[in-house]
Design brief:
The protein is an alpha+beta fold. Helix content is 16%, strand content 39%. It has one domain: Triple-stranded beta-helix (Sandwich), CATH 2.60.520. It is elongated and about 70 Å long. The protein binds zinc ion (ZN) (2 copies). One zinc ion binds next to loops.
């Protein structure tokens, strides 16, 4: 076993060290990577708080809240939102996935030592989420233990609710909702 393969590596600073973008990226990757490892290993993939699903007429509302996915990434939903009902009949799973995208583009300064670089680059990364519908639970092959799915390290969406349509009416599966409830272990005041 080679203890230098994989694993974590962090910046070591000293006065006069030349810092480039890759060093600041390494700084972020170290802390983000470690936090996600802890999330995965300590908590599994679960709805931590909020993200309660309610049907109101022909709309589905999802409360703000926090979930953790199979990579230990935090899926944070700052406020409640609406999603259209599934188009298909029968049983559907409402899923949430982690998303991120670049914002705030800035022109790249010209460096004589790196003439390949030109144009614009995003100066920020926005961390977001995406709600969707699936015909089956994307975590169905995952073991369920103590209110969470055992994490596999791959980019899997998380299920918020199972919804069935019967004669044009949509109903939330209560047994599945209880399963999700078991993972809500948050102590914050805002979202129960
Ligand atoms: Zn997984
Ligand atoms: Zn909370």
């Amino acid at each position: 076993m080679d203890d230098r393969a994989g694993g974590f590596s962090r910046n070591h600073y000293f006065n006069g060290k030349m810092l480039a973008a890759k060093d600041f990226q390494a700084e972020q990757e170290y802390h983000i990577g470690k936090r996600r490892l802890l999330n995965r290993c300590l908590f599994g993939s679960r709805v931590v708080c909020g993200l309660t699903v309610k049907i109101n007429g022909s709309s589905i509302f999802v409360d703000g809240g926090l979930a953790l996915d199979c990579c230990g990434r935090e899926i944070y939903v700052p406020s409640s939102g609406r999603i259209a009902l599934p188009k298909r009949r029968g049983s559907s799973f409402l899923t949430i996935s982690y998303r991120e995208f670049g914002t705030d583009p800035l022109p790249i300064p010209m460096f004589p030592e790196d003439p390949q670089q030109e144009g614009f680059e995003h100066s920020r990364i926005r961390e977001s989420f995406k709600l969707g519908w699936g015909t089956e639970n994307p975590l169905k092959e995952h073991e369920w233990r103590d209110g969470a799915w055992v994490t596999c390290g791959k980019s899997h969406p998380l299920v918020l609710a199972q919804i069935a349509s019967k004669q044009g009416r949509f109903i939330i599966n209560k047994t599945f909702a209880k399963k999700i409830d078991a993972g809500r272990t948050c102590w914050c005041k805002e979202k129960g």
